[in-house]
Amino acid sequence: MLSRFTQDVFTETHVPTMGADFGLKMGDVEGKKIRWNIWDMSGAPKHLNIARAYYNRKEVVGVVYDVTDVQSFAQVGF
């Protein structure tokens, strides 16, 4: 999703994020120039403490999970 949003690139294969990944997107909202600094954090249990540190004092947080996997939704609660 990060590469699709920041670079408009779509790939058929999924490579899970290990730790953290970063993307930058420039945009325009209601005539104002904005800059999105986007962090893609791993959902793997061993990376959850790192992810929590990145979420601290962020303005927006989006959470993505697999709707076909109940366990992935259960792991969202932190």
From TrEMBL:
Gene3D superfamilies: P-loop containing nucleotide triphosphate hydrolases. Coiled coil: none annotated. It comes from Arcella intermedia. The keyword Lipoprotein applies. InterPro entries: P-loop_NTPase (IPR027417), Rab (IPR050227), Small_GTPase (IPR001806). Keywords: GTP-binding, Lipoprotein, Nucleotide-binding. The keyword rRNA processing does not apply. This is Uncharacterized protein. GO terms for molecular function: GTP binding; GTPase activity.
